[in-house]
Design a protein that fits this description.
- With 322 residues, the protein is mainly alpha-helical.
- The chain has a domain of 205 residues: HUPs (Rossmann fold, 3-Layer(aba) Sandwich).
- The chain is 56% helix and 6% strand.
- The chain is built from 13 helices and five strands.
- It has a three-stranded parallel beta sheet with strand order 1-2-3. A two-stranded parallel sheet has the order 4-5.
- Strand 4, helix 8 and strand 5 form a beta-alpha-beta unit.
- Helix 4 packs across helix 7.
- Bound molecules: tryptophanyl-5'AMP.
- Tryptophanyl-5'AMP binds next to strand 1, helix 1 and helix 7.
Length: 322
Amino acid sequence: MRIFSGIQPSGTPHLGNYLGAIKSWVETQNSEAYFCVVDLHSLTMEIDPKTLRNQRLELSASLFACGLDPEVCTLFVQSEVPFHAQLNWLLECVASYGELTRMVAFKDKSSRQEAQRASLLTYPVLMAADILLYDTDRVPVGDDQKQHLELTRVIAERFNNRYGQTFVIPEFSKPAFAARVMDLQDPTRKMSKSVSSPLGKLEIFDSPAEIEKKIKKAITDTDGEMRYDWELKPGLANLLDIYASFAGETPDQVASKFTRYGDFKTALAQLVIESLAPIAERYNALMTDRSELERFMRRGAEKASSVSEVVYARAATAMGLN
Ligand code: TYM
């Protein structure tokens, strides 16, 4: 089973990134799994070059610390494999302007940015290139990436119809719970690196005191009933999802173990602190040897290049470029 997924190096991963994506990457990693730090995608929004340079390596270390094993799967940085940008261009000649303007993430981000980069519009095409370059069967992501995944399938099918069988059509997969972790201060919007307030997002390297404070202050409701109900009690449902995901239980099982919100929040904070502590420890250890990390990443990029080169050549030939 060929697996591919990606994450932007635009800040410390939060609980949404961890529970929606990274945790399932760790659980399903195999020798056919490719995970990518998508630095080219981060350039679609304003980002300081020095920050981007540091975050590429820091995010790579974070992903290893979360449990990706360089002896099992392949982790690499997108810009170190030239075929992503190259296939992107070929696919821009297959995707249509209309379908890109309909992407919810584009509408959302473009309404918040003053000077819009053209790449914000074409972003999903680069994402399709990322995925299709590895003959990917399955893409484990959070729920917010579903529309982009559907577009990837449309582009791949159109390419195959027009130029002959070239790409594998990938499936999207998301975790059973916590596929959309919501902002702790506003459970009607997703937890987001760029939009959520400091209290609204919980980052994987937050201190125990910060974790406790954020969970204690998380918005719930006033009826005081421990029940899993996304429609009427989204704040509580979000916290139940987080607990369930860390504990390997269902949200209903979790709800039945507690009677008071206060006790539940205390137990949740404890569970999150205990689950994240080893990740921070491993991260600190990894960052003491940057040259070893760089070696892992170079090896990852070489492996990813050797696979994607073949698929790129297949697509270029199909279109008449060689
Ligand atoms: P990014 O960097 O925003 O997020 C990385 C992963 O985290 C998931 N995620 C969430 N899951 C649950 N709840 C949330 N609040 C939450 N926020 C983020 C995302 O769904 C994602 O799985 N476009 C992608 C990166 C990308 C990619 C790809 C992904 C580029 N190329 C190819 C898969 C395949 C993105 O911006 O993810």
